[in-house]
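Annex B, item 7. Sequence and structure tokens for protein A, then protein B.
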Amino acid sequence: MKFLFRSLFFHFICILIFALLYNTFSFSFDNTNHNNRTTILDFLLLSTTIQAGVGISGFYPINATGKLLMTLQQMMMLSNNVFTLYLFTL
């Protein structure tokens, strides 16, 4: 049970860290609604949908920095899920 809480905590921390990174590098993203007023809540939603494996919300990367950040978060999410599944099948 302790391992489950650690895994959940890891996901929440990743969501918060990447939301802050996306907000910091907001020039690397574009909004499909073409609304120039983006908030941290918009990037929190983006980070949550990526971490959940759902996909991209209304934002998409427009340069290499944004693509790299999104790829990094997806790789961390996939690695954690594979590691978690491996431990539960021992």
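Protein B:
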Amino acid sequence: MTSSAQAPPALVVRGFTKRYEAFVAVQDLAFEARAGEILGVVGPNGAGKTSTLRSIAGVLPVASGVISVCGHDLALDEQAAKRCLRWIPDDPQPFEALTVDEHLEFTAALYGCANWRPQADELLARFELSDKREALGGELSRGMRQKLAMCCAWLGSPQLVLLDEPLSGLDPRGIRAAKQAILELAARGAAVILSSHLLELIEALASRLLILDRGRCVFVGTLDEARAAFPAQQRGSLEEIFFAATGGGSAPQA
């Protein structure tokens, strides 16, 4: 993983609040993500992780606060902002009537990816989908849908990639391939936002942490900074830090 403290952030979130009628899902959230970094987003169920990622992706409207992607205000220049990012939801749903290969062709056309075929072939091989080129989206298993979503997200040169529980449904080989692909994506200069309940995944891959609880940011920084912020956690694992930051007490002992 690389980091560029001098380059402008790929993502800037300031004063972001998300409401569903009377319920406040996210309250006054502020953070940044820079090129080459993997920002791990963790929090209990209902903490606002998915609402935040969907709003950054432009799936949900931004009614309060500012979200800027590669310098483009999402509310004012949505098309330019979306050209810079890719989004993989927790349960990708491909087009039922398009083949695997047609999904890649469609993605390449959508993002204006030139000479995309060699990269597409490499991605299909990496995620073990080469023999599924002609399979329709509606025929794919849960894990294959996840792999196809990753192939499409990696295609071209995305500057910001949002991943919500990216290992869901993957077999052990797929998990290994996904982890390596995420690291390589950041190494090539993309900012990666990785949201997961798998704390060991976040601890292994993330450059920095964003911990949410009940819609608010309770910590943002590196793992070492988190250990300093919660010094009572003598083991210093992300699990211990998570429980301390979210008011859950000590982690259960194995």
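Comment on protein B: The beta strands are 11-20, 23-33, 38-42, 64-69, 72-73, 85-88, 160-164, 191-195, 208-213, 216-221.
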